[in-house]
Design a protein that fits this description.
The protein is α/β, with parallel strands linked by helices. The chain folds into two domains: about 240 residues, Aspartate Aminotransferase, domain 2 (3-Layer(aba) Sandwich); about 130 residues, Aspartate Aminotransferase, domain 1 (Alpha-Beta Complex). Helices cover about 40% and strands about 15% of the residues. The protein contains 14 helices and twelve strands. A seven-stranded mixed β-sheet has the order 1-7-6-5-4-2-3, sandwiched between helices. The chain has a five-stranded mixed β-sheet with strand order 8-9-12-11-10, covered by helices on one side. Helix 7 links the parallel strand 5 and strand 6. The structure holds pyridoxal-5'-phosphate. The site of pyridoxal-5'-phosphate has 14 residues, from helix 3 and helix 4.
Length: about 375
């Protein structure tokens, strides 16, 4: 079945008793036992809740996984995955990574004895060179935040297989609609479902999908023990969002392609990072491996004063953090999403004081271009 059809069908056959077309919201903390030592299959909502389970099964199907796990946020999902490792373990991580993930690794988990080496994971030799006897995993973003570099998952996965390393792929920017990391060799995919999956800037959520049943059992044990589960209302909103994932992303990508092209022609824009542009270094690879280029654009302006002007003067495009929703948002990574990355590293990565990140929504494209045009003119 085509993935666009699968997204629409999520949760549809859940309530066989009433035939409800949408999944009921089981707003309950606990469940009555039918008898001593008996269970309906649900005992307590941290351990399992029918609304959350509909999402678990739906995302597992979308990603070709054996199981899926919804969390209270993308960060909670990533933190839960780090419980797979123990003091002394080492992970190789994409250099160009969401700032909150860097903060979690360097400021929290490093205190518990985990160590992290940041490498350019688009260079497979750099990954191999960073492997230590204590390395246990490689953590990548399939399309990086904010500079939109695309990872060669097949190559990284073969390095991981040869060296018995887990491959964890944060697929937030692409979603299963455009790319299924487990099909390309990742062991675990992780999502900030706050973004494209839920898609309406109205809920914070995270998702993990896993290929191997034994690994999934461990992750379930950690999730239930720590308790960072998604509540039933938010699980329902995420299911509702996923139903329109395909149609939203089709439109968002179409808009992003046009806007990226338009930005390249503007005299005050010095650089456009969008993998759909033919001169993007990963354009060919992404064309081969992904069903699309996504709807995130990063661009640089010719003077830092212009950054504030654009952020304040865009009317239709909101100056706000987050991404992937139906409304277009613009942000300034150096000061916002990536402020927790050390300044020297930020500078080396190219996250500078003239770089803006645009999350393209589903509005009429001409209106978005007009909004950018008037903000650039001041
Ligand atoms: C690529 C990526 N991963 C993870 C996260 C964290 O997700 P959340 O904000 O849902 O905790 C974000 C948030 O922006 C992100 O962009």
């Amino acid at each position: 079945m085509n993935i666009a059809t699968q997204t629409v069908q999520i949760g549809l056959d859940w309530d066989t008793r009433t035939g409800a077309v949408t999944v009921p919201i089981y707003q309950t903390a606990t469940f009555r036992h039918p008898g001593l030592g008996q269970s309906t299959g649900y005992d307590y909502s941290r351990s399992g809740n029918p609304t959350r389970q509909a999402l678990e099964e739906g995302v597992a199907r979308l990603d070709g996984a054996c199981r899926g796990f919804p969390y209270s946020s993308g960060m909670a999902a990533i933190a839960n995955l780090l419980l797979l490792f123990k003091s002394g373990d080492h992970l190789i991580v994409t250099k160009d990574l969401y700032g909150g993930t860097c903060r979690l690794f360097d400021k929290i988990f490093s205190q518990y004895g985990l160590s992290f080496t940041y490498v350019d994971t688009s260079n497979s030799a750099a990954i191999t060179a960073a492997i230590l006897p204590e390395t246990k995993a490689v953590f990548i973003e399939t399309l990086t935040n904010p500079l939109l570099k695309f990872a060669d998952l097949r190559t990284i996965s073969s390095i991981c297989t040869d060296n018995h390393l887990l491959l964890i792929a944060d697929n937030t920017f692409l979603t299963p609609y455009l790319l299924r990391p487990l099909d390309l060799g990742a062991d675990i995919a992780v999502y900030s479902a706050t973004k494209y999956l839920a898609g309406h800037n109205d809920t914070v959520a995270g998702v993990v999908t896993v290929k191997d049943p034994q690994l999934a059992e461990k992750i379930y044990f950690h999730q239930n023990s720590v308790g960072a589960v998604l509540g039933p209302q938010d699980a329902w909103l995420t299911i509702r969002g996923i139903k329109t994932l395909g149609i939203r992303l089709d439109r968002q990508q179409q808009n992003a392609g046009r806007i990226a092209q338009w930005l390249t022609t503007h005299p005050r824009i010095t650089k456009v990072h969008y993998p759909g542009l033919a001169d993007h270094p990963n354009h060919r690879l992404m064309q081969k491996e992904s069903r699309g280029f996504g709807a995130m654009i990063a661009f640089e302006v010719d003077k830092c004063e212009l950054v504030e002007q654009i952020l304040l003067k865009t009317n239709l495009i909101s100056f706000a953090e987050s991404l992937g929703g139906v409304e277009s948002l613009i942000t300034f990574p150096e000061v916002q999403t990536h402020a927790d990355i050390p300044p020297e590293l930020r500078a080396r990565l190219g996250i500078n004081n003239v770089l803006l990140r645009l999350s393209v929504g589903i509005e009429e494209c001409d209106d978005l271009i007009d909004d950018l045009q008037q903000a650039l003119e001041g």
